[in-house]
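Section 5.1 Outputs to date
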Amino acid sequence: MKHPHFFGYGSLVNRNTHAFTPIHRSVLSGWRRIWQRAPNRPAAFLSIIADKDSVLDGVIAPVPNNDWVALDAREFSYQRLGVTDAVHHAAPDVRDISVYAIPTQDAAPPDRDHPILLSYVDAVLQGYLSEFGTDGVQRFLQTTQGWDTPVRNDRAISLYPRAQVLTDADRNLVDDMLLTVRAKVFA
């Protein structure tokens, strides 16, 4: 039986942030990640914008019984877009593939009052490290626009609801990677 699938390019890459299985590594062509905020969210999150020259690593997973309710609730403020023909994968039984993006008319640039949460970056990069290794983390950083956005260090009291515990090595990797993109981390 063929199922609809989602393409994850941020925290959905981290298997510990959801229960959708099986997960298959995949690639999305024609889109670039960008840090944006939606009007009803207190922080900046990843979204995607069209970019014919960009290719993103990510994962796909099935949405059983076409039941998008839980995923739509998790991705509130985002719009679901069909990207079936732009995703390259080796998964069987794929009917179609959708991705979530903040609608252009609702997107706003992040700022110090709506920063990126470090706990969110930790969850995302932990997922990329697990799925794609250090090279995948570097590709993630290179294919994500908006690293000049302030990053709030909320590790002590995580504001991101699906925050993950990182090993010391993983935390050091995240911190080093943020230095390479000159992220402005504040307390």
